[in-house]
Write a structure and sequence with these properties.
- The strands form three sheets. The protein has a four-stranded mixed β-sheet with strand order 1-4-5-8, with helices on one face. A four-stranded antiparallel β-sheet has the order 2-3-7-6, with no helix packed on it. Strands 9-10 form a two-stranded antiparallel ribbon.
- The chain is 52% helix and 16% strand.
- The protein is an alpha+beta fold and 369 residues long.
- It is built from ten helices and ten strands.
- The protein binds flavin-adenine dinucleotide.
């Protein structure tokens, strides 16, 4: 079985049937997470030598769309492990890899990727979480908010300021922080509009004593490390958004064929059929942009603006397609427990996290001017 078929059947058998319950209960999907580890869906592009699948970015975006077609919160977990796993593989010492990668990729350890702070969202240069040298280790103090998996993570990759003079230009470093360490508090668990099975919350670090080997990569190289996985991360979220669009198209098409009004299926009204046509066009166009971005990244070509275009287009398209699906479902589209209603909520965050639409437009316009 090829990769697409394997993930598609995993999504059909394990994810889609659980999505409604996961949305309602907002619980961490532990059994599906474990299953993803067993299937090798964590660390798609992480080299085989580091325990990953050694796949391409094109493989990764395929997996993300298929998982998200099942339920976006599940794809989020794949995306998170992909980023953290890629950074560990690229910048980790042999010891750090041995400590974290096998369990992370097997789905027996959970990670978080902690950048955002109360005063630093789009503007990461404004971070104030501070790591100071303490003997041969570090003392970490600060607060992170809106962090995926903060309530359930075994460890977090945390970006902190190590030199306030230099900040983004050599003054930020990445640390591997075990969440059981004294001084680490999981601040709260957010109640969200959508993607409700994704566990999102905050961390407070109060003089957390970190060993010297908690530093990932060189001191001062943290911001560059974040940038090195940004484009892949954005393509992953674009593919996640496009999985939501495909699910919206399928549920709307099914309803349009079966629902009868004025003596015929509503699909026979041109207004409804054209709306489906626009949904399909949005999905297909987003997929081409995402694939183009993946091909550029796989070929080590300059992919920045293309990945931003893919993220911008696919995420905004997912808001259009899910809104159309709700409209085609009529009153049913507004009722909890109906897939279109959930997809509409799940899509909304995709234009915000992993860089807002406005940030993507900044990047694209800079590449033009
Ligand atoms: C469910 C969820 C999960 C998340 N997961 C994580 C995670 O795992 N790890 C993590 O570190 N973060 C995470 N985040 C944080 C997310 O990345 C940020 O919310 C996002 O980057 C936007 O930052 P902000 O919320 O501070 O908004 P702000 O940066 O305050 O932006 C507010 C508005 O101003 C606009 N804006 C800002 N600057 C400009 C500009 N220069 N030009 C034009 N418009 C501008 C923005 O586009 C936006 O519309 C998550 C957030 C959510 C809600």
């Amino acid at each position: 079985m090829n990769l697409t078929d394997m993930v598609r059947s995993f999504a059909a058998e394990r994810i889609r049937p659980a999505a409604e319950d996961l949305d309602a209960t907002e619980r961490f999907p532990a059994e599906i997470y474990q299953g993803m580890g067993e299937l090798g869906l964590f660390g798609i592009t992480v080299p085989e030598a580091d325990g990953g699948s050694g796949g391409t970015v094109a493989d990764y975006v395929t997996v993300m769309e298929e998982l998200s077609y099942g339920y976006a919160s599940i794809a989020d977990q794949c995306g998170l492990v992909e980023l953290v796993g890629s950074l560990l593989a690229r910048f980790g010492t042999a010891e750090q890899k041995k400590t974290y990668l096998p369990d992370l990729l097997a789905g027996t350890k959970r990670c978080a990727y902690a950048l955002t702070e109360p005063q630093a969202g789009s503007d990461l240069g404004a971070l104030s979480t501070r790591a100071r040298r303490d003997g041969d280790g570090w003392l970490l103090t600060g607060e992170k908010i809106y962090i995926h998996n903060a309530p359930v993570a075994d460890f977090a990759m945390v970006l902190a300021v190590t030199d306030p003079e230099k900040r983004k230009r050599g003054g930020m470093s990445m640390f591997l922080v075990d969440t059981a360490l004294p001084g680490v508090t999981r601040a709260y668990h957010e109640k969200k509009m959508g993607q409700r099975a994704s566990q999102v919350g905050g961390f407070v670090f109060d003089e957390v004593r970190l060993p010297a080997h908690a530093l990932l990569g060189e001191e001062g190289a943290g911001f560059g490390a974040v940038m090195s996985v940004l484009e892949k991360g954005r393509l992953g979220i674009a593919a996640l958004a496009n999985g939501i669009s495909r699910a919206a198209l399928d549920t709307a098409r099914e309803h349009a064929r079966s629902r009868r009004q004025f003596g015929k299926p509503i699909a026979e009204f041109q207004a409804v059929a054209f709306s489906l046509a626009d949904m399909a066009t949005d999905h297909a166009a987003a997929r081409e942009l995402i694939r183009h971005g993946a091909d550029l990244l796989d070929g080590d070509a300059d992919a920045g603006a293309t990945c931003s275009m893919a993220k911008l287009f696919a995420s905004e398209a997912s808001i259009r397609t899910t809104s159309r699906a709700v409209q085609i479902l009529g009153g049913a589209g507004f009722i909890r427990g109906v897939e279109a209603e959930r997809l509409y909520r799940d899509a909304r965050i995709t234009t915000i996290y992993e860089g807002t639409s406005e940030v993507q437009r900044l990047i694209i316009s800079r590449s033009l001017l």
